[in-house]
Amino acid sequence: MEDGDYSIRRWEDLDIDILVKIFQLLDIFELTAGIAHVCSAWRMACCDPLLWKTLDLSMLKSNFIKIPLEPFVYVDGRSDRKLTRLLKISLSLSRQSIMTLIFHFNLYVSDEQLTYTAERCPKLRRLVLPAWNRIKKTGMCKAIRGWKDLESLTMPSIANPPYLLEEISNHCKNFSELKIMGPCDIYFASSLVAFLPKLKVLSLRCSMLYKDVLIEILDRLQHLEVLNISHCILMEAVPPPQHKRVVREIDQSIRQKASRLREFITCMDDNCIMCNRTRTDEGLVRWYKYEEGLWKADEVRSLAL
Amino acid sequence: MELLCIRQWISGLLPTWLSAWCIKPVGGALVRQEPEYILLALMGSPLKKIMLCSSEKEIFSVEEQVMVQHSVIINNMIEDGSYNHEESKIPLDCVDSKTLKKVIDYCTHHTHHHNDNQEDLEAWDAQFLNVDSNGLYDLLMAANYLEIRNLLDLIYGTIKNMIKGKKIDEIRRIFNIKDHGFTPEEEEQNRKEYPHFY
C-alpha cells in the first residue's frame, strides 16, 4: 500500500528551486556541514547564487588574548582553523557570487585568511571589516585591489590609516558609503577629503567628534548626501585650563551647512541610552559590554545590519 | 443566471471604496478580492462545492471557498471562469487520491480553524506532517503544483529540520538517496577531506 512505489520518490531529483528554498532556511554552519556532499543535485542547489548574495559571519568571534608584542593579539589555533574551514567551504560553494561580506569586529582574521577570501569574492560590493590587527598593509591593499565593485565599507575602531582610503580611491570607482565605528579626528577627515571626495554616505555615530572636524566634513565633502552623527559627543577646543568642552547643542551655522544634505541625522539627548553609553565609554563605545548585535544598528538604513 | 453576468451587474452597482476592504487569503497570502464575489458569497451559497479529480480518477467534493483561499492555481481557475460549476471537475493528474485527501484536509482545517490560537494550529500541523518520507515527498509535489504557500512553507521547514545537524550517510538513508551522482573518486575524496560530515 505505502511501500509499493519506492523508486519513484527521488529526493535527489527534486526541482532545484525547491531545494534552494529549503536551503535558504539553513544558517551558514548548517549549510556548510556537508549538505553539498549528499548528492550532485543538492550540491548544485548549494551553489545557487541566491544562497550566496550575502555571507554573514558576524556570529563568529575569535578566541583570543591580548599580548604585549605585535600584533598585540594571539588567536587560539582551533578558533583560527574553524574560521579557515568555514571560509574554504563557503567560498567554494559561493562560486564568486558574494556581494556582501559581514565579519564581527572581534574576529581577528589573519592576513592569509583575508587574501584567500578577497580572491574569491571579486564581485564584492559591501564589506563589514573584521578586526585587522593581524592583517598587514600589503594584504589589505591586495584585497582592495581585487574589489573593483566595492561600494560600502564599515570599519571597526582599531586604526584608520589613510593608506586604506588611498587604495580605495585608486581601485574602487563606485565607492560611496563609509561607516566608522570609532573616533574621526582631523587627520582622518582630511584623508576622507583627499581620497574620497565623492563620498555620498558617512556614518560616525556613537563616538567623539570635534566641531572643527564636523565643519571640515560639511564644507569639503561636496557630494555628501547622508551624514549620521547620532549619539556622538560633540566637543570643541577651548583655551586652557579646560582645553576642551562638550558642545551641548548643534548651532545654527552647522545646521545651515548641513541643510544641503538629504539626511543629517543627529541625536544629542540626555535621556537617550546610546548617548549615555557613548559618554560613559568616553567616546569609544565598548560594544562587547552591551546587548549582542547592538553594534549592527545604524540610523542610516543602508548601513544597518 | 450566468456567473459572469451577475458579476457585471453587481460591479455596476458598487462604489469603488468597497474594493478597498475586500481582502481575502489566497494560497496563504492576503489578496484583494473583487467585491462582487464577496457579495455573492454573502447572498448565495458560501458552501458551494467544487470537484477535484485525482490521478486515480477518484472525485473529491470540497467547498469552493476552502480551495480558493489556499491554492493559487485553483483560485485562478475559478476567477478566470474556466471552471463551470455545473459540469466540470478539476483534473489533478499528478496528485494521487491519498495525497489529495490530505491536501484537502489541510486546507479545510486551516479555513475553518483560522481563528484558533497559534499553539493549537502548530500542534495540528505537526501531527498532519507526521508521515513517512514518501508521503512528505508527495505532499510537497502536490503543494508545489497547486501553489499552496502556507503548506509549502510548512513542508520546507519540516525538511530543513530533517536535514540540519545530521550526517550525510544518515540524510541519504532518511531520504532514500541511493544514487548520489558523484564519481567513486569524488566520493572517496570528499570522505577523506571531511570525515566528520559523514
Automatic annotation (TrEMBL), chain A:
Entries under Pfam families matching the protein? F-box-like
Q: Which gene encodes it?
A: LOC107467079
Q: What organism does the UniProt record list as the source? A: Arachis duranensis (Wild peanut)
Supply the InterPro entries for this chain. F-box-like_dom_sf (IPR036047), F-box_dom (IPR001810), LRR_dom_sf (IPR032675)
| F-box domain segment(s) | 17-57
Recorded protein name is F-box/LRR-repeat protein At3g48880
Q: Which PANTHER family match?
A: F-BOX DOMAIN CONTAINING PROTEIN, EXPRESSED (PTHR38926:SF13)
From TrEMBL, chain B:
Known SMART domains for this protein? Skp1
The signal peptide annotation in the UniProt record is 1-28
Q: Which CDD domains match?
A: BTB_POZ_SKP1 (cd18322)
* Annotated ranges, domain SKP1 component POZ: 48-111
Pfam families cross-referenced by the UniProt entry? Skp1, Skp1_POZ
The annotated pathway is: Protein modification; protein ubiquitination
Q: Which domain of life is it from?
A: Eukaryota
The record's comment on protein family reads: Belongs to the SKP1 family.
Q: Which PANTHER family match?
A: SKP1
Instruction: Write the protein's name.
Output: SKP1-like protein 11 isoform X4
Its gene is LOC107491915
